[in-house]
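User: Continuing from earlier, I have the next pair ready.

Assistant: Great, send them over.

User: Here they are, in order.

Assistant: Folding the first of the pair now:
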Amino acid sequence: MALILIYTGDGKGKSSAGIGQVVRALGHGARCKVGQFIKLDPERLDSGEYQILRRLGVEWKNWGAGFSWIGDNDAKNRELAIEGWETVKGWIEERSCDLILLDEFTYTLTLGYLSTESVVGYLESHRREEGFPHLVITGRNAPESLVEMADMVSSIELVKHHLYDSKQKAQPMIEF
């Protein structure tokens, strides 16, 4: 049976944990896809995880304009979230992969870009079907109804962070 795994909380490492699940699945010969929401295009950012997963044959789609509070990103992210969710549902229904990472997906729900009730309802009604992939969902503040239906939830806690504590800049290999 396919599992739904969530990495949430205020700490650093949710996306990294999700990428780790993809790498582990690839090691078992799985077909994997990544759907990334909210964040800017990883190719523009020269994201290390994007670069290596693409080399390993993972399809990666991005539906993000960046931080929602900057300029008109909120409106753009709303449109992109709807487009992205439709694409992900297509991936699920075509049975084209064994594991899908939905990176930063919780924000699409907490910001109201997608209906949590609709998303949870879709997942609940399809997850027991033959060929439904494992789903790994990341992002802060996972809605309670999503947490309740998930098979595994890890909350990553922030104890200390160099970007906040010592005002350092984001670095390749560490943040992207």
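And the other member of the pair:
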Amino acid sequence: MAIEIEKKFLVKGSPWIGAPFQILHQGYIAKEGKATVRVRTSQTQAWLTIKGRTADKSFSRLECEYDIPLQDAETMLKELASSDIISKKRYTLIHQGFEWTIDVFDGNNEGLVLAEIELPSEDTKFELPTWAYREVTFDHRFSNSSLSKLPWSSFCGEFSDE
């Protein structure tokens, strides 16, 4: 079973221009008790992901991800998702030896750009790129499951001065 150790940042500028990307759609089947169950599709693949909760002041959690048939995933998103479907382009960049993903959101979350870095441990040191300007790891509004229920358009005004 894998552990996800991830930090999340708001992005300024357009560092992703020219980087490879995937178009992703994801929805949440359940978010109860100790776990969240997500279905995600790309143009050619699909995954079912079960994520545990993070403890206070921690950014580590259990994550189990499984390949599933694309057609099954599309049906699950249509029939079982309990909130809005998240749509985004996911870009991949390498900065100082670490892989960063940059999500450029569409729909109700249009205008939101988030960068994520997955780390081997919580105490791993890394250099923050200049385009990653504000950490939002502990602001749960920026989790994709929260954004599917309370989209960026409903609270982006709080960040308009940045």
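Worth noting for the second one:
The chain has a mean pLDDT of 93. The radius of gyration is 15 Å.
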